[in-house]
Amino acid sequence: MRPIVAFCLRFPRLILLAALAVTAIGVFAAVNARYDVFPEFGQPTVVIETTVPSLAAEQVEGLVTTPVEEAVNGIPGLATLRSQSTTGLSVVDVVFDGDTDVYRDRQLVAERLAPMAGSLPDGATPVLAPLRSSTGDVLTVGLSSPTLSLMQLTEIARWTMRPALLSVPGVSDVVIFGARPGQLQVQFDPDRMIEAGISLDQLTAAARQASATLGAGLVETPNQQVVIRAYGQTLTPADLADSLVAQRGGRSIRLGDVAQVVRAPPPAFSGALVGPKPGVLVVISAQYGADLLGVTEALDRELAVLAPALKRDGVLLLPDALRPASFVLTALRHLRDSLVIGAALILAVLVLALRNWRTALVSFVAIPLSLLMAIVALDRLGFTLNTMSLGGLAIAIGEVVDDAVVDVENIHRRLRENRGRPDPRPPLRVVLEASLEVRGSIVFATLAVAIVFLPLLSLSGVAGRLFAPLGVAYIAAIGSSLVVALTITPALAWLLLGRAPLHPADPPLVARAKRGYGRLLAAVGRHPGLTLGSVAGLVLVSFASVPFMRTEFLPAFHERQFILHFETAPGTSLEAMLGIGERAARILQRMPEVATVVLHAGHADLSNEHAGTNKAEMDVTLTPAGGAEGAVLQARILAAVRGPPGVRWTANTFLVERIHETLSGQTAPVVITVFGPSLSGLDADAARIAATLQAIPGATGVSVAAPPGRPEVSVVLDRAALLQDGLTAGQVLGALRTSYAGDTVGRVYTGSRSFPIVVVLPPGLRADPAALGAVPLTTGTGGVVRLGALAHIQAEAGRDQILHAGGRRVQVVTVAVPDSEASAFVARARRVLPGIPLAPGDYVSIGGTATASGWARVELMLHSGLALAAIVALLVVALRDSRLVALLLVNVPLALIGGIAAVWIAGLSVSLGAAVGFVTVFGITLRNALMLLSHYRTLVHAERRPWSAETARAGAMDRVSPILITACVTALGLLPIALGRNLPGQEIQGPMAIVILGGLVSSTLLTLLVLPLLAIRFARVGGRKPVAAVRDRADIAACE
């Protein structure tokens, strides 16, 4: 360390050139860094989707979901399995431990699925969904038109927009909600088929033959090979209708005689509204780890290219129905403004306090240089610049400035003292000695503060992945600051202060502060018992109030985007859901705060939404200007849209919803999961739990995630009738599937586009459950029989969705509750849940962000205990005096009372962000106390002063200036963030800043008043020399 400082003083201009190079690299890294809302907080997850349109939920569970779960269960690194089986769709989420490579995880899953190729139902092929970032969708685009049909809009979205958007770097997938893809449908008429003696098998075979595309081979000539290109495929409904089915009595029966051939969409599983009108939503997802801002900007450019063509086609484009990048840009702008204002205030304080522009400049330069070096380190470590990492840089400003202020103030003071001596020493020697005088203490203080933040890096789960970047950024900033203090600060101080004129006295502001502090310290010294008793009383009152504080996982984010969910009874049609959504959209668009409203219901292929048609989601974007606070406006929106009974409404902000979904797979903060083998038993348990939780104060909405009661029509085959007519069960079920799910018999190719040819019942008959019995089948003797003669058909209640967790059946009860009250609600729920009777073999677990928050706090306390042990060991090495170590450890917790008072005064809930603020206060206090006690050791051992009350007061007077300057600089740097805590992007840093500001007050007072008093009464500064006091005269001589 000493050789480093000596080298920098010998070659100061070389060091400044290196600093300029580092600054350029840092600016380049900051400009080209990846920006995001949050760090990648989700665990590596591989989603397996299997589409089986003709199967009910229980069939999907048994035939698809359970085999897939059994195949991937036990895979290396597996954390948990979650799945949902819905009508026609199986979705299995394979969640891995946080430290696995997600691309290797996908390969392992694919290897497990490969042997299943022939064991699943026909047409059921498991597909790995594209990897997506934790924040999910990067952009949602709305398409509508007053002149085009939904089928035409779908064609534009599918064949024009989707390929173009998928080609944008960083895009993972493009999903279309509300799609109505065109099909060439052969809609057969059962009555006309019976009359003509045509069976469904015959009609299907005829349609397949009419649409066949076969290669005819080559014509070989002596000089050429000529390709035979045969045109026999039907391209229009009229061509297909003219195709032959059979001949009866010398008459040709065409497809058009027994069926209507039209272009029409298949049965819809998703719907969309753009505003209050039907439309198509194009939902674009970012790749895992992609740069959110970069991808959004690239998509904007691509949409700008597509916009003229869409306008010519009569398409109205809503390019930013949902745009998370807007929040990032707003957050970065607010944080930038806060930092710029804070930096200006810091510079003003430094100039006023030090009354020397050179000294202020040397101290100030350390801030941008240290932060830019930290950004380079974050970029090389693979971190994005997000609200958490930028927050870590913001709260590190105090330590960054302290490194420079302590060094520069000591150099300035020693140079001024040296010039007042009758025999002044060479200035270079003074600068080196002054820098080395505090260097050891600064190194130990920096290491101690870094250890304080290590528990953030060891948190598990979502909390760890969210807050680890903050801890890394903070440690990188103070580490960079230490490097700057060791190299650039001494070199710049030598160049600017070494031979510059210096005022012989303290600056007026510092002098007044010292005089006031001296009087206050003397007063405290005259009444030590009263002072210590008062402090002890404050400590008891403060810590006694801690259990009564509200807690939450994360504070509410002040986004301008809300997500409204509404849910009705299982089996509700898309038309009914869109009707409810249209009414709500019209209401919302009349609110002045609302800019845009879009809706999607149900699920689209390979989307990250797997809801049934009875569930819908509305994305509400607010205007940038003003309006009520988020929570108030959210309540107003919910109150406005609530309408007919039987519709359950909930609301979240975009980011909070993503965190909820990552933790539990649900969108609520409190999730009760019931495990058991029987669906009926699970339903009964969930109903009892929901009723009990609804009665607990704080619950604003309790619902069962997968309620029973979806209407179904059961078809039970009559085996005797099948035998009599010479039919097999497979033939009958195949005819049933063709009639309602459709049988794809070919494709029509027009250029690069293709459309399926499907044999299916007409929509009118598919909408009538009684028409099931009219489906015609060919008997073994060549006759025709209707399905009603071969089966018992009846209506009954079934299930829309079956949930699994860990490969076991579950039912989930979700509770909407304000995040600030979630922990208290969970505590009350834990008391009542044991008294609820459950079906035999069933059991309950509680999850969601509320429990994650509690576990994160427990982890933080446990790991902080280990960190404290490491700090004690470090302090023993630094101070080499058990009494001094004990004094320091007693003083540090006392400083937290200011942070506790700030929480109460500001009316904050203690989120993890506020908890990090307490950790920061602990580190600041530890640093100041260590610097003061180390200075006492220096006075005794280096300057040969006897340890006494006078020496203690003199040491405190020497340190009061850097301590006060650092406290003021830190406070003013964080003040804009604290005042802007309700601005978007400062929801986490704001509470942190408020806690730190409160802690700075108590920390500064206790370090300057209580610690000297305790040192006078209990310390015995003597014994071995401290590490910080050792001098290497050879280095000093080398400099000279």
TrEMBL record:
Leader sequence residues: 1-29
Record keyword NAD present: no
SUPFAM superfamilies listed in its UniProt record: Multidrug efflux transporter AcrB pore domain, PN1, PN2, PC1 and PC2 subdomains, Multidrug efflux transporter AcrB TolC docking domain, DN and DC subdomains, Multidrug efflux transporter AcrB transmembrane domain
Pfam family, one: ACR_tran
Transmembrane segments: 338-354, 361-378, 438-459, 471-497, 860-879, 886-906, 912-939, 960-980, 992-1016
GO cellular component: plasma membrane
Listed GO MF terms: xenobiotic transmembrane transporter activity
Swiss-Prot/TrEMBL keywords: Membrane, Signal, Transmembrane, Transmembrane helix
The keyword NADP is assigned to this record: no
Protein name: CusA/CzcA family heavy metal efflux RND transporter
Species in which this protein is naturally found: Rhodopila globiformis (Rhodopseudomonas globiformis)
